[in-house]
Model the fold of this input.
Amino acid sequence: MRLTYPHMGEVYIAVKSMMDDIGVESIIPAFTTNSTLRLGSSISPEAICLPYKIMLGNYINSIKAGADTIIITGSCGPCRFGYYGPLQMQALEDAGYNDIDIIILDPPREGYGKFLEGLKKVAGKNSRRIIPSFINAYKVCSELDSMNELLYYTRPRAFNKAELRILIHEFKKNITSVKGSAQMLELIRDTKRRINAVDIDESLKPVKIGIIGEIYTIIEPFSNLNTEERLGDMGVEVHRSMTVKDWVQNNVILPATGRKGYKLERKLSKPYLPVLIGGHTQQCIGHAVHYAKTGCDGLIQIYPMTCMPEIVSRSILPQVEKNYNIPILYLIVDEQTGEAGFQTRLEAFVDYVSSSSL
Ligand code: SF4
Done:
């Protein structure tokens, strides 16, 4: 089996860590570019959401590099994500990519048996390694979150922002060549030490902006045009509301111990949206309220064009904006999104938030 998986931020690092530990060969898709998106869009329905198109482009690139099996998570929630796996499988077949197996890992809340069944199919005779390699992959996710937090703090304060850019570029290059969770953890910790050594202006008090919205779009830098880096370079301290580790914790670990995930988000979003309507709408609203209460100066909601759950969040957020007197920028992305317009909107928003917080 030569396994591949779509890009979504650092997901490829966590999954590679787990697959290396289990002993399954991974084909990491080439990092997403405009040509990946064009490739995926060429066999996608025009109105479907951006993550679907990018993921298809990732699969085709991996298949061309030798992958024969795709692993993705599934969902039964009331949004398109639940249909991604079956639809993408059909699209690949129609495009002539036959004999590709897609393993869909349904979330454990649908039953741990089905979740483990998918993993056992991947692990084969090494199934006993699933749990320890999962625990180690979770540690990798935690270290990545901590490295990102450090980056969010350092980037706006760094005297030489190019130094950080080079450091992260080297990290991305090296993380694909190391093997297994132990080597990955070592590299992440070493990168953290190097970030800590970057010269920063400790006296700077940057504006703080929280990123909320659709999970894929806020985690995958290609789909949000590297918003975190752009804001950091403008001198903003970024806080991202969702991470891969959070997803695993709330969707896999807590349900395994009989607890419900996203407790804070559900509590804070209740006055605005008391029921689950699919996607991460309650998380988006809950994080907006949390950031407003904990000192963020502004919020940016990012979501793909036609994203059903986030359109609902978009209609609720103005009320949060009013109740907490916090400015919110709404950014919708699709394959037509232009870089210049995006940058201008970010700059104008940062200017506005900076002057409002004086
Ligand atoms: S949350 Fe939005 S973008 Fe993501 S799959 Fe559902 S409809 Fe598409």
